[in-house]
Amino acid sequence: MKHVATKGLLGELADISGSLFTRPFGEQYAALCYRRSAGTNEIEVLLVTSRDTGRWIIPKGWPMKGKKPHRAAAIEAWEEAGVNGKVRKKALGYYTYLKGTKSQPIPVSAAVYLLRVDTLDDAFQEVGQRRREWVTCDEAARRVREPELKTMLLGLPGRIGSRK
Asked: Which residues pair with 34 in a beta bridge?
């Protein structure tokens, strides 16, 4: 079978480097949904697939009028994955990525808010449009594309510690 190389994130950035910083970054709010495994007490995170490409991501969306950033992140987690839980008010960190078409990608900075999952509902707004899966932090870091998000995922166990 012939191996077909795909252009990675850095390759895509190189293609648009001349216009990348000529317009402002978009701003989004993301929810890093986590729980502890019942059997091992290991931290697991919930990944969902994007609707357009099927890549593994964390729930995120644009600012919502009248909603604080951490609440907007929690609403996105509900709409995209059926998550209910407690969201932290302070951002864990930020990551950047390119959103949009290949011809006109928009650089976006996503603020990430930790959300401890209490329940996961099977009836949510985008059911059937996305897949969701619980994975370890290491596996999540392998699946997502964005380097800053990978780093956040790998450091999550140390940030949460023994607390719930």
From this structure: 45, 116
Residue ranges per structural domain of the chain:
28-159
| Pair of tokens at residue 157 | 């166990």
pTM flag (> 0.85) = no
How many Å apart are CA 41 and CA 48, to the nearest integer?
22
pLDDT in tens, 7-50: 566 666 566 555 556 667 889 999 999 999 888 889 999 999 99
Instruction: Extract the tokens encoding 144.
Output: 């997502």
Closest CA to 57 of 123, 138, 141, 116: 141
* CB-CB contact of 137 with 45 (8 Å): yes
Domain 28-159 has CATH 3.40.718.10: no
Alpha-carbon distance values, 99 to 15, 66, 116 (Å): 14, 24, 27
